Amino acid sequence: MKQKLDQVQTELSLADQEIGKSRPELAEQRKQLALAQKSLTEATNNTLSLEQEVVRLQEELESRESSMGQQGLAVTKLRQQLSEYQQRLQLIEQDKSTTQSALKSDVAKREQQIADLRQKLQQTQQQLDKLNPDLARQQTILRQTQKELIATKTAAARKESEVRKLRKAEQKYLDEIQAQQIKIDRFQAEALRYRTQLTDLRTRKQTASLSGPSIEIIDPPVALTPGIPSIRLRSAAKERLITGKVVAPAGLLSFTVNDKTEKPDELGIFATSVKVDDEQTPVKMVAVDKKGQHTSLEFLLIPKLRYASSAKDLPQSASNSQMSARRMTGKVDFGNYHALVIGNNQYKHFPNLVSASVDAQKTADLLSSKYGFETTTLIDATRYDMLSALNELREKMTENDNLLIYYAGHGELDRVNLRGYWLPVDAEPNSTANWISNIAITDILNAMSAKHILVVADSCYSGSLTRSSMARLDAGMSDEVKTKWLKVMAKTRSRTVLTSGGLKPVLDQGGGQHSVFAKSFLKTLTENDTILEAYKLFRGLAKEVQLTASKFGIDQIPEYAPIKHGGHEAGEFFFIPQG
User: Fold this and answer.
1) Which pairing describes strands 532-533 and 574-575: parallel, antiparallel, or unpaired?
2) Do residues 213 and 252 touch, judged by C-beta distance below 8 A?
């Protein structure tokens, strides 16, 4: 800025010098003009060249004056710029002074901070000098701590060894506990057997005055035919073992088979051998109770040679049976198959079960994969879940549908009204608010449009159930007769129930990961490869369940019968393997 100011002053000085130089010349020209005017006046009439000279001189004078005016304006402008530059320089000088003052103040503050830091550093050094002895002590403590750590690790290793020993001892105790648990399970089974016997005795006392003895054949199956029922034997053996059960609420006085006295076991089970003639052998069983009431059962044993006299009547091989089943399946419209499978394990207010959910899931998988059922599975279902599913099926089912309902879970029986209940997982003891009664289930099933309905209940379902009125497929029928029979049964409405043990407690275990009933139920369906009616399914598992349960001291015999007041006519439920 100062340099620029000096430059302006220099230019102004040069302009003044030029003006000074032009002033004498201008004065001289004015003098010449005056002389020229004087000469012009004197020589007015002189030559024309003098006038022109005067005009020229006047023009030149005007030009010089105009130039001087412009230079004066330039000088004035330069003076204004000089004044502005001087003002700016003054402001800069003032800012410089202010900045230098601020810098000096900041430097003073920094110097004071440095002094403070030096003082603090000196104090810290003094404290450090004082802490050096403490540091030595800390190092000594650290070395001692390291030694203690090594000792602790050694002790920890010893304790770990002791823990391993304790774990071995714990495993030993667990094994002992497991052994004790097995004993407890046996005691519980024994207690259950005693409770079952007590319940059976009470039931017998209540019904003794109402019913007489009854005889049931478990094996071989008895075919209902016009006239006397018959058993068609599959071999030409000279003897046939017949097993069954005698029930005498008033107490059994005597039981005879073809006038030969037999003694059933404490559960009423009997097994007797009957000699078989070449033609046919009549069998008559008579049971008499202590009140003098008696019942009899008569049937015929027909040996293989009697009804297999021609080639077409001979028993078919397994492959021929499958081919026959496929031919009949193509001729009979069995409809669509659906299943509702329920397995309740985790109860809120009752003891939890072990196998119910596993049984249900396995059953659903088998029905879906092998038999083509459209399945709905409920695990640990509440009352709302179960009734909602049943009502949804009620709306969905048509006359061309078959429905299987499988229930595994707790069941209760009202012995006064002989009314059974299914217990959802939210059921409460001593309150039927969340229980589901047989009547509620029966009402829903009766209102369904489904053609065939089979209830499979691995718990108590209803009161006394009879098997005598169920239609059965005679093993000796020809393919033509079988086809006609299947067509009739497939069109006729059925409402049947297969229970694991009727009115008595049943085993939750005993079949590995399944219940005793579920194991036999799944095994029979898995091994089947032909058209299987529900009655044959029942016959296939009844004896096995009874024998297995008897090993635990439990009288558990599956039952199969029409659902009371369920709208059963005469039809049958069929299982059709796919493919």
Assistant:
1) antiparallel
2) yes
Give the residue with greater pLDDT, 568 vs 316: 568
Distance CA 540, CA 529 (A): 14
CA nearest neighbour of 188 among 555, 576, 554: 554
How crowded is the C-beta side of 299, counted as CA atoms within 13 Å? 21
To the question of domain 212-310 being in CATH 3.40.309.10, the answer is no
Cis ω for the linkage preceding 213 (within 30 of 0): no
Angstrom CA distances, 278 to 220, 455, 550, stand at 18, 41, 35
Q: What residues have CB less than 8 Å from 345, skipping those under 6 apart? A: 352, 353, 354, 356, 357, 379, 380, 409
Q: Answer whether 378's CB lies under 8 Å from 340's CB.
A: yes
* C-alpha torsion 158→159→160→166, nearest 10: 120
The number of residues making up the chain comes to: 579
Torsion of CA 389, 395, 401, 405, to 10 degrees: 20
Q: How far is CA 229 from the centre of its chain?
A: 52
Annotated domain spans of the chain:
1-165, 212-310, 335-579
Give the angle 200-204-210 at the CA atoms, nearest 5°. Answer: 150
Q: Which CATH architecture has domain 335-579?
A: 3-Layer(aba) Sandwich (3.40)
Strand extents, DSSP E, 39-184: none
The crossing angle, in degrees rounded to 10, of helices 318-331 and 479-491 is 50
Query: Six-digit token pair at 572?
Result: 């049958």
The 3-state DSSP class for residue 34 equals helix
Q: Can you tell me which residue has the tokens 């000074």? A: 20
Letter for the amino acid at 530? T
Average pLDDT over residues 251-279: 87
The pLDDT tens digits for 2-45 are: 677 777 778 777 877 777 777 777 777 777 777 767 776 776 66
In the numeric block, which tokens belong to residue 243? 């097993």
Beta pairing partners, 458:
408
DSSP 132-147: HHHHHHHHHHHHHHHH
Residue-wise pLDDT tens digits, 187-200? 665 665 666 566 65
